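Researcher: Re-running this chain for the archive, since the previous output was lost when a drive failed. Same request as before.
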Amino acid sequence: MEIVELDEIDRRLLDLLQSDAKVPYAVLARILGISSSGVHKRVKRLFNTGAINKFVAVINPQVMGKKLKAFIGISTSPGTCREVIDQLSQRAEVLEIHEVAGEHDLFVKLITDDTLKLNDLLHEMDKIPGVSSTRTIIVLKTEKETGAILM
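Model: Regenerated structure tokens:
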């Protein structure tokens, strides 16, 4: 992927959209000192170049009954990492999958209802062909969590 050239207005626009993607273009235009059509063109360009991946609603997991967050370090058998990733990607509970260097091959972030559901998930993960071992870290409290990128 190619690096996108951003001017100061692009950077300010991205900061504003990361804070609240529902701000009307007219408000963004007033803040940025450009026209609403200028905001629209910039957002469209930023989206088309891949600088913006998508616009989403960030759901509060607690309200949805998802009270347990965990990180799982997964070691895989040689040559099976892609297959394991494909299987994990199908799980709704899995929020992130990272290939990593170090003790494990994969680092997975997941969210579920409680420890009983987590236990079930871990048993299911152990059955995935290619998973040789897992190590679980249960989150007690999240102090900071963001997807925002510093502009």
